[in-house]
Amino acid sequence: MSDITRLTAAELAAQLVAGEVSSYEATQAHLDRIAAVDGPVHAFLHVSAEEALATARGVDEARATGEDLHPLAGVPIAVKDVVVTRGLPTTAGSRILDGWLPPYDATLVSKIKAARLPILGKTNMDEFAMGSSTEHSGYGNTHNPWDLDRIPGGSGGGSAAAVAAYEAPLAIGTDTGGSIRQPAAVTGTVGVKPTYGSVSRYGLIALASSLDQAGPVTRTVLDAALLHELIAGHDPHDSTSLTDPVPAFGEAARRGAAGDLTGVRVGVVKELSGEGYQPGVLVRFEEGLALLRGAGAEVVEVSCPHFDYALAAYYLILPAEASSNLAKFDGMRYGLRVEPSEGPVTAERVMAATRGQGFGDEVKRRIILGTYALSAGYYDAYYGSAQKVRTLIQRDFAEAFGQADVLVSPTAPTTAFRLGEKLDDPLAMYLNDVATIPVNLAGVPGMSLPSGLSDDGLPVGFQVIAPARADERLYRVGGALEALLEARWGGPILAKAPELEVTR
Amino acid sequence: MSTSLVEYDEATERYDPVIGIEVHVELGTRTKMFDGAEQFFGEEPNTQITPVSLGLPGALPAVNGTAVEYAIRIGLALNCGIAESCRFARKNYFYPDVPKNFQTSQYDEPIAHDGWVDVELEDGTVFRVEIERAHMEEDAGKNTHVGGATGRIHGATYSLVDYNRAGVPLVEIVTRPIEGVGARAPEVARAYVQTLRDMFRALGVSEARMERGNVRADVNVSLRPSPQAPLGTRTETKNVNSFRSVERAVRYEISRQAALLDEGRAVVQETRHWHEDTQITTAGRIKSDADDYRYFPEPDLVPIVPDPAWVEEIRASLPELPVARRRRLATEWGYADPEMRDVVNAGAIDLIEATVVAGAAPAAARKWWMGELARIAKEQGAELGDLPVTPEQIGALQLLVDDGRLTDKLARQVLEGMLAGEGSPEEIVAARGLAVVSDEGALLTAIDEALAAQPDVVAKIRGGNLGPVGAIIGAVMRATRGQADAARVRELVLERVKA
User: Fold this and answer.
1) Which of A98, A272, A459, B186 is the most exposed place for a label (fewest CB within 10 A)?
2) Residue of B nearest to A97 (CA)
3) Can you tell me the ipTM of this complex?
4) Catalytic site includes residue A155
């Protein structure tokens, strides 16, 4: 393998600027790495080698002529398959979109293209981002690079595994209830769910519109900050996108890395630890807290009593919105079309046959749940009540942020479980996201960064949560904790991951 | 099974009809309700589309500010309150012309609510119709069913969908039940839809062309034994797309429902279709309370919170509405009520106003448009506005008459020329040589010739018998090919004879 793939995005960007390496070399190195290890990892659903190399060549030529380039120009990136890419297959992990070539780019993809980052390909995911293990992909599951028998998290297991396996220095994820942060936790990588509205949702195939948010998947806090800066910003195509100017996240991360958190109040959410959390996870969490204290932070305990109802509320709001968002997949206009094997071929019957064959079990489960929750006579009891819980959770956050500048918790209750272990137990699967879901319900930003290995030798995630529109606090606190942890470990946690066998 | 009907007069003697009307108007914005696709009528199918119009995966709506402004204009013109904050909702149902399989509409939070509008019937009676709400929504695409009978989906071999119309902004205006109109219900329904159509045009929010489906009406009809009884079961006849059909559909439903009730049968709550060809309604979908559209607030859009100052700005900029304008013009022009009604019914009000602006007296303007021009339009089967003359030209023509340069008879000849495209009144007068002969020298010559030719007549006149003067005038007029002013000729003849 090439050394280039071990560089962080910031390091690679610096080498590109210095002319020590070309974007073409860097892109080719990552394509080689994908060819070498992605067979067993299966992080990618589609590799766009030609397009990536063409972009890289263009960047190199532009740089040679002294053209002004984005700081990340030429750094390759992988994009979760739920993000629409013009001319590149986009399936959202579903068979129902098999063969669809989008005629347009998501806004964040337009930004990536404008900044000229070569897009390596599209990453695997749970179908329509429904799941916590990537086992619900319609195209086979992704494997955790730390242990190929284990899940890489989900729904964005592909993006996290790609970054963890050095197949890409940067990736895009989306997070509706933890789909960026939980995979980051179980793969020893960094993932950020920005404030709702920070990154345009135009071109993200919607799961739950009021919860979805795209964000960076990287190996370092600084890389996440730089990528977040690139993809953020107001978009007139997304009415829910924020109009604020994009803060200097990279600056916040660099400042944090200096390690001084004097005066920063860190709130430990009482309800997000204890029962149900693996002892090894809690040990690493406590260790992280001690480091923050050592850096000058004031650590206080806060209570968010309504978080106990977050999972229940989430599993009403999400299916309700999803049942409507997924209605458009009906075989009439694009993607899979299945005609009934017998009987008349009417539009209604084609829709039914297409959806019956094209959707997987988890998707059907949630569509049925959501359809029921929105039905006349049930709406108030289910969707209505869930929205009230959501308001209560937002109030819990508001109160907690009165006492603390950031909140912290373990990202996920456990380390990566074995493939197949929870596949037949949806409730057990849903519980993986118990600590990440409240963040989406409130629209606030959250980050997961590695905080060491549990006693089973697998990575553990540390979650940092900030108030809405204060994402830079994530980068400052995350940057500090990362620096302190790496000083203790003597390098990044991923250095401790077993070498993947090169298959080609 | 043939439908039995009760004579309309009998039906309304035995039952009290109550109607309710939903009018959809397509707004004439440049782009669609939630996306940047342009919307012009009659373009090639599926050319006015974007990822949003097609509901492609990942596409998101963004509200068209002009459409909101138009909706507020309509709300204000209907004397409605404008919501301080309102939201869109999703109406979920599967149908191929709805690309997302839900329609983005307003459900429990309309932008305008609780208003009224006065409608005037042809005999001048005014009814006040109460408005429950006016809300914004998007239109669906257009299905074309191929291979079946009469374009219906039943029996079709395949269907085509044109998404050009998908996402076109609509405002739906819903009345409260219109009660107390009795046998005049069909007339009121028609006048209401016509009043709204005129209003949409005056507001500049829509071309409001019925034949293009810019304005579509759904009419609800129910009967009850007496005005004191609770409301009966209603039917909703969908997409009735001309004023005449609105009137006839209501009339038909009253007769049909009365027959059912007479037989002791129940009216089924259902949607019905109006058939232009056979002038009847037939049953469509059963509309039961089991219809469940699973409405919920559209999470992709933020609430619309119109700035009160902006709403007041819009209110201040509202143009004069048709009813008020008609009343003002009738007074200004000194038209009697029946005269004004004829003008309105002939669609001549704008034409007359422009003619008056061009300098004609209101009475003269009315005489042209309701007289000669109305006759010609009728002969040609054309609308007044479609005749190839402008109000400005008619005004110019009347000025020539007022100046004494044309007689009424000559002016009608000039009009012929104008309709034949020969140019402006002045040009035609010049080209056809139609000006009144006011050169007295030429006239006197003609008179002298006539007098010389008829000495016996001259003798009679001199003898005090003025009867035969007409013979001299006739000869002069013939000689001048009718271009002389007959009154002046008479004066000159008498002077000449006496001299």
Assistant:
1) A98
2) B57
3) 0.95
4) yes
